[in-house]
Design a protein that fits this description.
Helices cover 28% and strands 28% of the residues. By secondary structure, the chain is α+β, with helices and mostly antiparallel strands. It has one domain: Metallo-beta-lactamase, Chain A. It is globular.
């Protein structure tokens, strides 16, 4: 059975972040100078400086990875948007700088996957930040392409950061009994989760989040089980605008918006995820609320 590492080695990317960056109204806000360069892109979102950080660029074969459908149907849906499979996918993380805090949403793959990803540290440095500058990290979930960058050579990669992970997510991936009963394509996450969480826990920097917790004013964590048992949606509000960072709840907006029952290979709780995806379309159309799928090209 395919693992995430297998897909990367085959030239296929698993999205680092299904992200929301705003409708045209939000994107039209004033861009900051030198907005895009060297794997990062900067914009102003309300009181926050928002930095998109590219971890790598891969090709995602949706006709092979989307389930509860047929390859022919997927290719037909993609064609309507002038796309063919595999689809170019930017794997991204995001930094919110404001209120004296610098909150990183996901950390990229680090050294846990192929060399085509794991580039986030270069973009962070080019954007003018050091790992020591990060005060908080929020993981959408614990798959290695989202949390692999938390550690380097077994040590904390962001020494001053508090790590926020859903309690349900940590409890699931740290449970030996669940690992024993897990499918082969889940074993990688069960193996790596303790390695990336333990250093932060031992340093007193691990915070297990519940639904509705606030990281800082304007940044709220919403539990959305489906892709994994403890996936978090990060809701950011500022000056009357909203961005919803969705983790891997949605992989192909071209296909799944219209047909939310279509799932992704690594979705673990498909029945719970479909209603969440079905809610995305009306939320997307609300005034001053924006988001995008992981298949959007870097930066946003």
């Amino acid at each position: 059975m395919l693992t995430r590492r297998d897909l990367i080695k085959a030239g296929f990317a698993i999205p680092i972040l299904a992200y929301t960056v705003g409708s045209s109204r939000l994107i039209a806000q004033k861009k900051m100078s030198s907005a895009r360069s060297c794997g990062f892109y900067v914009m102003q979102f309300g009181t926050f400086k928002l930095v998109a950080l590219e971890d790598g660029l891969q090709m995602l074969p949706f006709d092979k990875l989307l389930t509860r459908t047929t390859p022919e149907h997927v290719r037909s849906r993609l064609k309507r948007d002038f796309l063919t499979s595999p689809v170019p996918v930017s794997t991204n993380a995001f930094l919110l700088d404001g209120g004296g805090r610098r909150v990183l949403i996901d950390t990229g793959a680090g050294s846990l996957l192929d060399s085509e990803v794991g580039l986030l540290p270069h973009g962070l440095n080019a954007a003018g930040y050091k790992p020591e500058d990060i005060t908080d990290i929020v993981l959408t979930h614990l798959h290695v392409d989202h949390g692999g960058g938390l550690v380097r050579a077994g040590k904390i990669a962001f020494p001053n950061a508090t790590l926020h992970v859903a309690r349900k997510e940590a409890d699931h991936w740290l449970d030996p009994a669940k690992r024993g009963a897990a499918k082969q394509n889940q074993q990688e996450t069960f193996a790596e989760a303790p390695k990336i969480l333990t250093p932060y826990r031992d340093a007193g920097r691990l915070r297990l989040a519940a639904d509705g917790d606030t990281v800082i004013p304007g940044i709220t964590l919403i539990l959305r089980p489906g892709h994994t048992p403890g996936t978090l949606e990060i809701k950011v509000e500022s000056n009357g605008h909203t961005i919803l960072f969705l983790g891997d709840m949605l992989h192909s907006e071209q296909v799944q918006f219209a047909e939310p029952d279509i799932a992704f290979t690594f979705d673990e709780m498909k029945a719970q995820l479909s209603p969440i995806v079905a809610q995305c379309w009306p939320r997307r159309r609300r005034r001053n609320t924006g988001w995008r799928s992981p298949t959007s090209r870097f930066p946003v």
